[in-house]
Design brief:
The protein is of the alpha+beta class. Among the domains are: about 5-75, Ribbon (Tumor Necrosis Factor Receptor, subunit A, domain 2); about 145-220. About 30% of the residues lie in helices and about 25% in strands. It has helices spanning about 145-190, 195-220, and strands at about 5, 25-30, 30-35, 40-45, 50-55, 60, 75, 80-85, 95-100, 100-105, 115-120, 130-135, 140-145. It has a three-stranded antiparallel sheet with strand order 1-5-4, with no helix packed on it. Strands 2-3 form a two-stranded antiparallel ribbon. A hairpin with a 7-residue loop joins strand 4 and strand 5. Helix 1 packs antiparallel against helix 2. The longest helix has about 45 residues, at about 145-190. The protein is rod-shaped, with a radius of gyration of 44 Å. The chain starts with a strand and ends with a helix. About 10% of the residues are buried.
């Protein structure tokens, strides 16, 4: 059952003299009628001889301000993942907040919804892995599976092995180059008759270097 009240303007009836309505009036045809206060909607417009009639907003609807609105707005319903922060009143809409363990994002479909709507889902539970970042009100939890962790560990081990092998190969090349330069310096000081002996010495030095390298790799 609606509560009906009569609203009069400053002259007691509709204002037809002013070309524009004041802030507390609304236009109904050629006349200015006094607007209905918050929590009330216009039930019947005024005329040149009768006053406006206002009726209280029905349950689960609201109207905030003084206006000539003929329908009250539907109160917001808190969907799954949301809880009521402030209940709807005849003069204000309900307010919702995100429940613990949920995250929400805005989604809009211009063909269906005139405005963006909230879509809420529970945070992902990392049953088959490890949580690396907890969920927030707007983002889901971030998980990494045990299989992915195993691949990461294997990749790190392979990388370290390659670094060690690369370092050993570089060391061997450096040592071989130094021995070759040393042998060349010795050969430069020898006479042409001793060239054969010098080449033999150089080959022996290189052979010993390779033998030491192989022995070190075996010991390691």
């Amino acid at each position: 059952m609606f509560l009906i009240c009569s609203v009069c303007n400053t002259h007691g009836v509709a204002n037809t003299a002013s070309p524009s309505c004041t802030s507390d009036e609304y236009r109904a045809g050629q006349v200015c009628c006094l607007a209905c206060p918050g929590g009330y909607r216009v039930h019947r417009d005024c005329t040149a001889t009768t006053n406006s009639l206002c009726s209280k907003c029905p349950d689960d609807t609201f109207k905030e301000d003084l206006s000539g609105q003929k329908q009250c707005s539907t109160c917001t319903k808190c969907v799954t993942g949301l809880k009521v922060k402030k209940r709807c009143t005849p003069t204000s809409d309900a307010e919702c907040e995100i429940r613990d363990g949920f995250f929400c994002s805005e989604s809009a479909d211009k063909d269906t919804f005139p405005e963006a709507t909230l879509s809420c889902q529970p945070h992902t539970i990392c049953d088959s892995g490890v949580q690396i970042q907890p969920g927030t009100d707007s983002t889901d939890s971030t998980c990494i599976t045990y299989v992915a962790i195993a691949f990461i560990i294997i990749g790190c081990i392979c990388f370290i092995i390659l670094l060690v092998l690369g370092a050993l190969f570089y060391r061997w090349l450096k040592m071989e180059r130094e021995l070759t330069e040393f042998a060349n310096r010795i050969c430069e000081m020898e006479t042409p008759e001793q060239t054969l002996e010098c080449d033999t010495l150089r080959n022996q030095l290189l052979k010993k270097a390779k033998t030491r390298k192989q022995q070190k790799e075996f010991d390691d």
